[in-house]
From TrEMBL:
Its EC number is 2.7.8.8. This is CDP-diacylglycerol--serine O-phosphatidyltransferase. The keyword Transcription regulation does not apply. It is a multi-pass membrane protein. Belongs to the CDP-alcohol phosphatidyltransferase class-I family. The chain crosses the membrane at residues 16-37, 105-124, 136-156, 168-187, 199-215, 221-240. Keywords: Lipid biosynthesis, Lipid metabolism, Membrane, Phospholipid biosynthesis, Phospholipid metabolism, Transferase, Transmembrane, Transmembrane helix. It is found in: Endomembrane system. It catalyses: a CDP-1,2-diacyl-sn-glycerol + L-serine = a 1,2-diacyl-sn-glycero-3-phospho-L-serine + CMP + H(+).
Length: 259
């Protein structure tokens, strides 16, 4: 622990990388302004600002990796910004938009989302050097917050009654909270192969996807985030038989060694 503090102090004396941390600050600003919009009753704008925050959050890591400016300070700053932008901001949005009529049960449900997001971030920081880079363990908190925002925007788009949103948000909170602290694996989009040469058909598909999103942005954003959330569950179910066989092999091996 003392060694880590000394390393951090020495790193701070040398200075910090400006560019990736500016993107992190942009993410934090968008999340904070989302809370301001929530308190002013402008829930649609709050949802949009949280989505904007997720864009900045995605850029800061990529900029740091591409420019070789990753640092321990940046990782810690990013985690603190994520907790505000993707934990507190969507938690407050869900409470003010749908859960306030439930009183204590409402804000406790919103707190559940925040604390599971914090646990997800803490686990990520601990496991960052021990798990594969292509997969996240548990639903990433930016994806959970983006799903909340997409749901809010979908309700405004269709003009659904307020009675529906109470049930929808309650179900969504418990689902997202569980997925964030689960062992389901989600694609991280950090695969270096993504930025290498790809078949021409990939470009055509990407352009078609952008056109569809531009035509129906609210519906498509909701569908995209829903599919991403479902991907971890589907992947877990599909790999279950293989994991069971592997566990049995390990158990049998240990049993023979004990004998």
């Amino acid at each position: 622990m003392n060694g880590e503090k000394i390393d951090m102090t020495e790193s701070m004396r040398k200075g910090i990388y400006i560019l990736p941390n500016l993107f992190t600050t942009g993410s934090l600003f968008a999340g904070f302004y989302g809370m301001v919009a929530t308190m002013n009753g402008d829930f649609k704008s709050a949802a949009l600002w949280i989505l904007a925050s997720s864009i900045f959050d995605g850029l800061d890591g990529k900029v740091a990796r591409l420019t070789g400016t990753s640092s321990k300070f940046g990782v810690e700053y990013d985690s603190l910004a994520d907790l505000v932008s993707f934990g507190v901001a969507p938690g407050l949005l869900m409470y003010k938009w749908a859960l306030q009529p439930f009183g204590r049960l409402g804000w406790l449900a919103a707190f559940l989302f925040v604390v599971c997001g914090a646990l997800r971030l803490a686990r990520f920081n601990v496991q960052v050097n021990t798990v594969e880079n292509k997969r996240f363990v548990g639903l990433p908190i930016p994806a959970a917050a983006s799903m909340v925002s997409a749901t809010v925007l979908l309700f405004y788009h269709f003009g659904w009654p307020s009675s529906y949103k109470k049930v929808a948000i309650l179900v969504l909170i418990y689902l997202l909270a569980f997925l964030m602290v689960s062992n389901f694996r989600y694609y991280s989009f950090k695969d270096p192969e993504l930025i290498k040469r790809q078949p021409f058909a990939f470009l055509v598909l990407a352009v078609l996807l952008l056109i569809v999103i531009a035509a129906e942005p609210v519906k498509m954003l909701f569908i995209i985030f829903l599919c991403y959330i479902a991907s971890g569950i589907v992947g877990f179910v599909m790999t279950w038989p293989r994991r069971r066989r592997l566990e049995k092999m390990i158990h049998n091996k240990h049993h023979r060694e004990d004998r």
